[in-house]
User: Fold this.
Amino acid sequence: MPVPNLPPTIRRLRFRDRSVRRAVVWLRYKRARLNPEDAFLVSYPRSGTTWLRFLMFEALTGTSPTFGHIREAVASINRHHEAATVLGQWGRLVQSHETYDAGDHRVVYAVRDARSVALSEYRWQIRLGLEPGSLDRFIGDFVRGRSNPWGAWDKHVNFWLESESAKHNHLHLVKFEDLRGATLETLRTALVFLGQDRSDDELQTVIDNNTVERMRQKEDQATQQGWRANARRDTRFVNQGAVGGWRTQLSDSQRATIESRFGATLQSLGYPTV
Assistant:
C-alpha cells in the first residue's frame, strides 16, 4: 500500500516498483508452511476477487465478514497462518495476486475482461491517491505491464493457466461475468471444486447478503470505523460490478490499444474483440 505522506509521483513509483517485491514474495512463499489441504484464491487485481472472497467465506463458514475482517478470514500468503480453517481438517483459503507457483495446490482463479479490469484499476489508483494521469496514459502503462507491481494482465492469466496446479487439473476458472450473470451456479461450482457443497437456500442467503448494495453498505460501515482512512472518499472501492461497461466508457482507440496487446488471451477466454 502506498505511503500517504509521500508526493503522488513518488508514491506511484514506489507502488509500481517490482525490484524488491520479487524477493519479498519469494521469501513469503518459502516461509509459508502450506499444507496439502490449503487452497488458493488467485486473480489479477480488480477482477472481482473481493466479492468472491466474501461469498466463499460466508458460504464456507456461515459468517459474513466485514472489510476489516476479510483480510484475516481469507488471508494473503503472509497473513494466512492464523486464517480460519475452512477446508477439511486443516485447509485454509489463501488469497493472492502474485505470479508465484507454490506447487500442486487447488487454485480458484478469478478472471475478468481486461477492458473492464483497466477501468476498474484506473479508478482504484485514483482512490489511493496514486494520480495515474489521464486514462490514455494509464492504459498505455497497463498494456505494457507497468501500471502496477503485478505485471501485464495476459502474462498473469497465462502464468496461472499453465501452472503446476493447472497441469494436474487442480485449477478452477471463475469468470467475473459468469459470477455476475449466474451467481448461484458459479459459486456452487467453485465450492464443489474445493470439496464443499451447499444447498440452494444456503447459497441464496449468502448471495443476498453480498449484493452490490450490501457490499457498499459494508464498505460505508468499515470506512466509518477507520478502514482505509487515507483513501479518497469521492471514489468507492466497491464499484457497480458492471459487465461490459467498457463498451461505453472506453474510446475506440483505448479499446483498440487493449485488444491489440491482449487480443489472443481475451479470445482464448471467450471474450470477443472488435
